[in-house]
Amino acid sequence: MPFQPQEVDKNAVATIRMLAADVAAKAKSGHPGAPMGLAPLAHLLWSRFLLCDPKDSHWLNRDRFVLSNGHACILQYTMLYLLGYKVTLDDLKQFRQLNSLTPGHPEANHTDGVEVTTGPLGQGFANSVGLAIAAKNAAAEFNRDGFELFNNYTYVFLGDGCMQEGVACEAASLAGHLRLNNLIAFYDDNKISIDGDVSCSFTEDVTARFKAYEWNVITVGDGDKDFNDIYDAIVKAKECKDKPTLISIRTTIGFGSLHQGTHSTHGSPLKEDDIRQLKEKFGFNPDDKFIVPQEVIEAYKGYAKRGSDAHAEWNKLYAAYGEKYPKEKAELERRAAQKLPEGWEKCLPSFTPEDKPAASRKLSEGVLTKLSAELPELLGGSADLTGSNLTRWSDATDFQPPATHLGDWSGRYIRYGVREHAMGAIMNGLHAYGLHIPTGGTFLNFVSYALGAVRLSALSQFRVIWVATHDSIGLGEDGPTHQPIETAAALRSLPNLAFWRPADGNEVSAAYKVAIESLKTPSVLALTRQNLPQLEGSSIEKAALGGYVVIEESNADVTLVSTGSEVAICRDAIKLLKEKGIKARLVSLPCFHVFDKQSLDYRLKVLPDGHPILSVEAYSTYGWGRYAHVHHGINRFGVSAPYDDAYKFFDMTDSAIADKAVNVVNHFKKLGTSLESPLGLEAKFLAAN
Amino acid sequence: MPFQPQEVDKNAVATIRMLAADVAAKAKSGHPGAPMGLAPLAHLLWSRFLLCDPKDSHWLNRDRFVLSNGHACILQYTMLYLLGYKVTLDDLKQFRQLNSLTPGHPEANHTDGVEVTTGPLGQGFANSVGLAIAAKNAAAEFNRDGFELFNNYTYVFLGDGCMQEGVACEAASLAGHLRLNNLIAFYDDNKISIDGDVSCSFTEDVTARFKAYEWNVITVGDGDKDFNDIYDAIVKAKECKDKPTLISIRTTIGFGSLHQGTHSTHGSPLKEDDIRQLKEKFGFNPDDKFIVPQEVIEAYKGYAKRGSDAHAEWNKLYAAYGEKYPKEKAELERRAAQKLPEGWEKCLPSFTPEDKPAASRKLSEGVLTKLSAELPELLGGSADLTGSNLTRWSDATDFQPPATHLGDWSGRYIRYGVREHAMGAIMNGLHAYGLHIPTGGTFLNFVSYALGAVRLSALSQFRVIWVATHDSIGLGEDGPTHQPIETAAALRSLPNLAFWRPADGNEVSAAYKVAIESLKTPSVLALTRQNLPQLEGSSIEKAALGGYVVIEESNADVTLVSTGSEVAICRDAIKLLKEKGIKARLVSLPCFHVFDKQSLDYRLKVLPDGHPILSVEAYSTYGWGRYAHVHHGINRFGVSAPYDDAYKFFDMTDSAIADKAVNVVNHFKKLGTSLESPLGLEAKFLAAN
């Protein structure tokens, strides 16, 4: 039976279009054009297909919706309002105002019903690939015969901007490979971007490209008015059993506006007379604002009920599942609540100086192997550097379509391909599904390729863990193109991100411990290619504070503060200093973010007043001014050479560091001033004010 | 007449393959597999097609070669050696050793004949699009009837890794749009990446994808042995008049090795017995190392002569051109020498406090308009934010294929589309061609999308200029997804990159002045969306020092040091402080990189000892410890709100800053210690040691 649109459908679409115009006009800011063009699609999707329960936006098996063209968020907020989420008409009137529920781009953990933070183009599309992977994986793990707990779809809207971004291209290629038929993407083919007509820069055949990615591609010729065609396209997309679907839908940006089809409707409110004629055109009173006809309100109550009924049905299924599979249900509930298994952290290995030296990437492999058994929610992967990152535990199954015979949907190791940016954004989607802890490997230097996604992990408060190996000039021969110098500063300056650079096995365990316990903070673990000794004086507990004293010394002449592979070199430097009669303390500072959260008292015990503090790190010294008076680092690009030659070249040796420390001690003794810890200088001010 | 490969061709290819094995084995590191697989292609390309003069690697019309899969650089170094560039057999023996001419990945400005720095995957491919654009543009500008000065091709090799990277996808789409038929890309379809067979993550139809991008696509089925097919493919590619060409060439990684076709030949040397059997297989003595048969040496002399003859012919043409078009030739030589026109800087506008307030993006537009007339080498563009970045001067012509009727090849404004990362890498290619100063616009926050390319600008010493508008919470309503917090720290910590955040019109002019005069340093100019007053006390000359005193005050109680839009707010705060009887100095620090290069004496005059220094900037305070004692910044993500509300919310107002300054003054007075400038503390040590 073909779909029969009703009169209310037309009204609802007109309502959404008018609201888009009114909301932007009241805010004097925003993007009305795409919401007006996408109103028919949004209405049909949310009213007839998307299964969600507005009264419980966290229902486990809800369909996920992602607005990758996040600037069109008036549309998303409007749908959330119409369906009865915790978004009101008043919230729409507060669009883009300070601390409103309706910010300029959708933010997860901020607005009810928003799954992921979007706006930076292409990210949402890649997030949706993560959401679809997580759904496949959850189904494989938890579904049982007769109990299809997980079978939700992920729907994503994207525009021309997203289509052009590399992160979306990467994600699309991977989604095609993975045959994610639970993913349905709608490409808003409105031919307009900020520079005007896309013909000035974007003339490729998008549908042919997606066919090349092995997607199922459907075209809707008139997304403005042909409701039947839109409806049928979604039905067909849901029928596809072995591919993700792209529905390319031709729309008119700003549909109804006097300037429809032009970029003038894209990024700024319509003029008042334009809005008036729009309302008249749709048969409404042009004097009224924020019009929502009663019949539309009623219709949306019905659509919401469709979702809540489905949820109620599912709840029954879930209860029965719990009777037959109590262990599985308990496990599922644990994971949905983001609770960690009791005593999980006991699996973390600890080390003594007698244990043999090891690369911290190797130590990380040991931890991941333990964690893979202890934490079924761990979902690993690498951007085609598995053998270098050592991110795959030995008995892992790959996450692959079963037909490939390379793995199956229950697999917990993802082969991301050489796609760092998509990996970062997909991990955000994996987290957002709510049941996984994603980890992803690449070289630290190439986390930079993914910074757009890392930033959104931090902003969204998503627990995503990067296993970033080859963390310095210590990678040696690959040379300056691969040796990070500035990456640590970029990540340390990012709010709500924990950048860890562990110095030995205990510190690696501590980094994982804190990363996993930090439910709302992403972490990047910088790990070495080269071997490191196990330090005397390190422990998981101490390292978990972000910074601690490795070697204490009363009446010290100098403190060396360092991270990662340079800590052991400083330890050796201190032995040389001792021979010269200089008393030096050693501090390891594996994570600034965590250390900064400790009490001032503790921090000043670690980095006290009274003597010079010398920082030692094989990175740019930028940012060390907060902790040390003088800095030993690398304020240039690296070199291609065997790693010990590179270390020597940059004076990152015990003797060079000892020499520098001697100079520092002599210099400040000569000055005779009583030195205050740089840390204390500001911190004491902040504590007092 | 079909191509007839000769015996020496076979020998040359075997030689290249054996050298690849020997070079990696001696270095005990490196990637022999791809060079062995690509040897036939490289040999045929360099011997029969690529026009270059090994004795003058800077010949203006040389064909450009880019190795996007830079890890295969043994191949590039080998070709440079065989042809007689300044790379010797001894240099090959020093592969990946400290300070050798043959680092682990190819570096521009380091090894003779290397055009661009590659290795981070996908970059080189995007660079090649820039090289091809520059060639089209140079031809349109300088060629005359009968004087085809510029008609070179750009040849680029890329592997599966490059193919998967988003930056390459973006660049491919743009190259197709631009119909760059002077670009010929060779895709090394060897089916192997680090995780093993690409079937684990990369199963798309690459050739169909490139057809969708509107590329000319040619397939070579047996790139290991079918020399004729390779030859014919290149001939056909060069015949294509309106599209870039992708030649997809099936090769066997590590061809000849016992492990050929597997990833074990990818990233580490072959074992000794494997190399022995390889040499035997090719009919050489397995005891010999670094074998280069005399006939191969002789043949390559001939190939080199082919290039130098072409260069000699071109020189004649160029001389005749100079007689007929002396002005054009002089201009071309000026640009090739990277000389700026005499007195160009006089076009930079200067301002007085009477001039009206303006957004620094608007001031930048004014400068770019002047520069576009003064500097024909300026090649502008934006990643689809032209109207927001204000990067296009009013009489600009777009760089477009003439058939589109949207511009022509002489156009100096590039519509990059929503492709920030490709824009960054393409700008590197534009610079590398040697005749242009590329500028590219996007929001500062989205420079992060392109950090992989920005880093390579800095490492390569390429003068690339980013026009990064919407530089802070001052962009307002778009909210935290678009408001940079950490971006400045990421860029300031990058070696050899100048990050500018100008405070007014004079500082905008200064930023452009220094950026353009810094021949070996890329710059990022962070510019506001909101209006800024023209400051009393600013000047182009002072701002060009990177930091200077805006308001001096003897016996000051406090110095406020700030950048960009916060400088004027600090100025107002100082007025409030004066009313409270507190004497405050004001320092503007638009560019740390340039300021740090000034004499210690000057820097200590700007940021002196003796009183507290308070930094004020609407960014993460990370990194300010070098310049100030206490920091007023934003160590969290921003907010979606009208910009003045956002500034109030974050206490970025004159009164809030004045209050903080009062607290700072009182706090440190109470302590009674004589404060040293944080800058001085380390700088004096460095000066003395």
Automatic annotation (TrEMBL), chains A, B:
User: Mind telling me what this protein is named?
Assistant: Transketolase
Binding positions for thiamine diphosphate per the UniProt entry = H71, G119, P120, L121, G161, N190, H266, F446
Q: Please report a single Pfam family linked to this protein.
A: Transketolase_C_1
> Has keyword Chloroplast?
no
Where along the sequence does the record put site: Important for catalytic activity?
H31, H266
Q: Which organism is it from?
A: Malassezia brasiliensis
User: What the protein does?
Assistant: Catalyzes the transfer of a two-carbon ketol group from a ketose donor to an aldose acceptor, via a covalent intermediate with the cofactor thiamine pyrophosphate.
Q: How is the cofactor bound?
A: Binds 1 Mg(2+) ion per subunit. Can also utilize other divalent metal cations, such as Ca(2+), Mn(2+) and Co(2+).
Q: Which class of enzymes does this protein belong to? A: transferase
- Protein keywords: Calcium, Magnesium, Metal-binding, Thiamine pyrophosphate, Transferase
Q: Span of the secretion signal?
A: none
Q: Which cofactor does it need?
A: Co(2+); Mg(2+); thiamine diphosphate; Ca(2+)
